[in-house]
Amino acid sequence: MRTIEHWIAGKTTSGTGDRTAPVFNPATGQQQAEVRLAAADDVTAAVTAAEEALREWSQTSVSRRAKVMFAFRELVNAHVDEIAELITDEHGKVLSDARGEVQRGLEVVEFACGIPTLLKGDFSDQVSTGVDTFSFREPLGVVAGITPFNFPAMVPMWMFPVAIACGNTFVLKPSERDPSASMLIAQLWQRAGLPDGVFNVVHGDKVAVDTLLDAPEVAAVSFVGSTPIARYIHERATSNGKRVQALGGAKNHAIVLPDADVDFAADHLAAAAFGSAGERCMAVSAAVAVGGAADAVVAAVNERARAVKVGSGRDSDSEMGPVVTRDAQQRIRGLIGTGEDQGATITVDGRDLVVDGHEDGFFVGPTVLDRVTTDMDVYQQEIFGPVLSVVRVDDVDAAIDLVNSNPYGNGTSIFTSSGEAARRFQRGVHVGMIGINVPVPVPMAFYSFGGWKDSLFGDKHVHGPEGVSFYTRAKVVTARWPRTHHASDASFAFPTSK
Asked: What domains are there in the chain, each with its CATH number?
């Protein structure tokens, strides 16, 4: 049985912990490896390595840091297929989707390659007689990332390229369900010339997380996961004086107006709901059909749901793979049944799907529930599976009210041919990311990703300009160089400009 170990100070190590967790292939249902679960001492060793590396790395020129980023970018680009295969074998998503995940992570690396420009400060000449003022940003120190199973390459790459380019050192705690991509990425960092200890990987569970949250040497924590854990991370880390960005759960709505192109909307609804088996924080899980659009939208989505090719992520014909674990499979099936019991109509049922040759895999087929109401469990919970709930409302204002009454505020979309309705929607919804005829409105790397309400704890979004702000802090210098023997204008009064 292959054992996946930690990466600390530039080398693999088994650490001091004697606990392991299984790593499954979701398509076969079989265990393929085991991963070491860090003891507190292992996390402390990673933090210590990062702290020691910080002395040199934080003082490295931005030009040198940019060169390392460019080298890392080339190496990741050359190993996209290898990283994607690791993701597919441990997460289950199809290879094309895994490659797309790596590409979206690469975009953040490319953004971070511009760090000399991104860290430029401001300068004001002669703010007072003989006095200049300028500002610059410094790294925070040792920072940590705690990342989810659904994007084992992309979400960490939303964090550590920006953090490292800004001069910080990084400790990553990836999901123990699919840990191998992080280990390959650590090796690529070393090949790119990153000094040992700047990037470290520790695998683990709550023991590892709590040790990071409590470590006084860790200055900031970035997290992506469920809302209850995001709230816990934020509360515990901030109570320890750390800067925190904790991205939580989601219930993403897609509004379809009667003037929308039904076929266009249905194509994108199906892709957004069933892509990656619905295991995306930006997946559309609630379609809000407005007025007379409902029947046509449901019929069109049903047709596309039945046509989705479900199979092993390694099969080039597959459009959708399995969910990540047996527990996830059973939970999703249970929620579908609960939806039916509570009054929803199942128009496409994926609970009994069996993939030939992969009978033990963790598969759930695309599922559509019509006439869902907001008091049902399938609407209130983040299902994180290939399930689309259709809610019917009378008009666009009711749709906006529906979105705003939901506790989550991650992403939402509208399908319409009306610019007026789209503008009213984008200004009216209380959500961080909005798509207009775009179902999954994930911004490019030079913008920042993040939601509102229970989808984000902390005041900074991830990557982009807010990422640079999160991983640095400002210094403002006011300087004067008086002439020798020049008369002093010192005063006991509060200084003012002259």
From this structure: 2-248+455-477 (3.40.605.10), 252-436 (3.40.309.10)
